[in-house]
Amino acid sequence: MLRAAALLAAALLVASAAPPTVNDAVLAGAAAPATLAETGLFLDGGATRPNARVVPYGLATPLFSDHADKARFLYVPEGKTARYAGEGLLDIPVGSVLIKHFGFTRADGNLDLIETRLLVHQADGWKAWPYVWNADDSAATLKRAGARVAVTGHDGAGKPVALDWQVPNVNQCKGCHATGNTLVPIGPKARNLNHDFEGENNLTRLTRLGLLTGVPENAPRLPDWKDANESLERRARAYLDVNCGHCHKPDGPASNSGLFLTWETPSGPHIGIGKGPVAAGRGSGGRMVSIDPGHPDRSILTYRMESTEPGVMMPELGRTQPDEAGLALVRDWIAAMR
Amino acid sequence: MMRKALLAFLLVSASPAWARTIVVAPGDNDQEVLQTALIEAQPGDVIELGSGTFRLTNGLSLDVDNVTVRGAGPAASVLSFKGQTGAGEGLLVTSDRVLLTGFAVEDTKGDGIKAKGVDRITMDNLRVVWTRGPHKDNGAYGLYPVEATNVLVQNSEVVACSDAGVYVGQSENIVVRNNRVSFNVAGIEIENSKHADVYGNLAHHNTGGILVFDLPNLPKMGGHSTRIFSNTVVDNDTPNFAPPGNIVAEVPQGLGIMVMANENVEVSSNRIEGNRTAAVMVVSYVRPFEDASYNPLARNVRIFGNVLGRNGWDPKFPGGAELAAALGGGLPPVLWDGVTRFGDKPDDTTTTPASDAPMVSLGLTVAGTPPSKAQPAPVAPVGASAALAAVVLPADQPMP
User: Fold this and answer.
1) Does A156 contact chain B (CB < 8 Å)?
2) Quick count: other Cβ atoms within 10 Å of Cβ B5?
3) A15 interfaces chain B, CB cutoff of 8 Å
């Protein structure tokens, strides 16, 4: 009783003396909390108002997820900072959290939430915690085994589409987030953050707010894949890096294919040019090589991007719809190759 | 609540104190129940599949070391993926020291059971099948360990893969024994792998029975040291139904055993019969490639002591009929492309297979020369014998 009273007094003291803080103890725990609210990452149950040191960011070239809209945040605990570590992933300290809301924007401009995925950096590595929102977006609960959610989304033309939304289970998280056998973030690469988001460069904002250090002048940038001022080559390679490169890299889940679609891969067989399939099976679509320069319709890459059939479509996870705009870009890129 | 109702946790006295047996029975929420069991398993646990058909709607995955998934037998416990809407395979294993035994996987949209980047994986007494039979839209591989070490695939049956029934790729230290593979494009394929023993298998009614390949532009190349012995490779007669583009789409109908671009391969004591193209084919990789570290030649292949029935009476590759006619109506048991060099490299004297059975060389000399340029010539049989040591799996390889 005494202990409970003391805790209550302490809690009241905190509440009156300082704004509520993120619940670092919960985030460091072995078991994921049953609800997103318990993390304290947001000030409200609907997770629209980020807590202190929970900073929104955006990516120049994002992953396609059935046209869903996303809101991303980085939390770095007080007293710690992430470090710029080259153009790839930021070096994000233990205790930090990457937060990604998925949903479709309603007429009022707010996100109709489907799920929120956390990547929590604990002392023994990153942990993936998927949370699924209830019908009125007032609470999100943990779903370690994933879930299927009936969602009304839209297609590339904005037409409403009924989606069988798959919330990934924790193993499927690793299906994209594995490097070697270790779970790592994918999105917050410095080059993909080095862009304006809501009026300020992400890296500048994170630095200004004390979450990031070490950003050099003239840091490299990944192109915005929709930026018509960029070359077709750079736009297509940015798109492939973000949408495919997390698996198709030498230490990624698709390593055995020998097809490496990362930004760093030099042009040649490993990016798919003249490269035959290895374990594609029917995914080859009867085409002989991943990329046949000048011939998108003879390239396995476009065949698998067009498909919505499991066993054929790429990426394997995270979409049920084709990304027409991304496909058009990759087609144009291959068509222009000589 | 449903999950709790279907999962029973039992202590097994023979296992370490912390190991549990988690019993999962088919119900009306198989995907979530089974996937939850696979996620919540602890090292040492046994997940026991009950009898009946589990109806899966997505891929399953296991990422916990030292777990056994045991069914009530490959005819009794069936994982049906007919309603699968996602994932590239039925079951994906990414953890070490896993034993899969006694269940079936049916009608996956992609591969059957894949184990990637793992150590000490054992696949035993499994059945992987596409129930509609051979079809180009069937999954590529049935049992599919890749980038793995210490691989044991045994006592299993795989039917109707559009690529290979048992496919071991980019792996090391491999035993594939006593399996039955039929109506696949390739029955068993060892690709870009080192130290494999393939024995006691029955490969029949595939397009090709047993294949040993090495392909370019892959993270792991330089496949070598495979022994193919004491297998029954008969009546491989299924027309090739692989989607073009895949390397096995080039396997001619009616092939017994094929070695392509590999090194130190022994083919011995097999019974090979009823394969219309050839009993044994030894060839180089013929497609153009851009990879300085790749060797497209077949080197140090030894063929001896096989029991050879009727083979090679109707070779199903371009120019095969003309070749058979020129050789008096059929091919000798061993067909070699006669390729001894590639690019601007000198001749490699280890390319001539040592065969104690009659062999014909197509005399193509340089890798990539089209078969239309063939200058067939018989090669006299020579004595050949075993040189490779047996593959030894670690003492703690999971065993049923």
Assistant:
1) no
2) 9
3) no
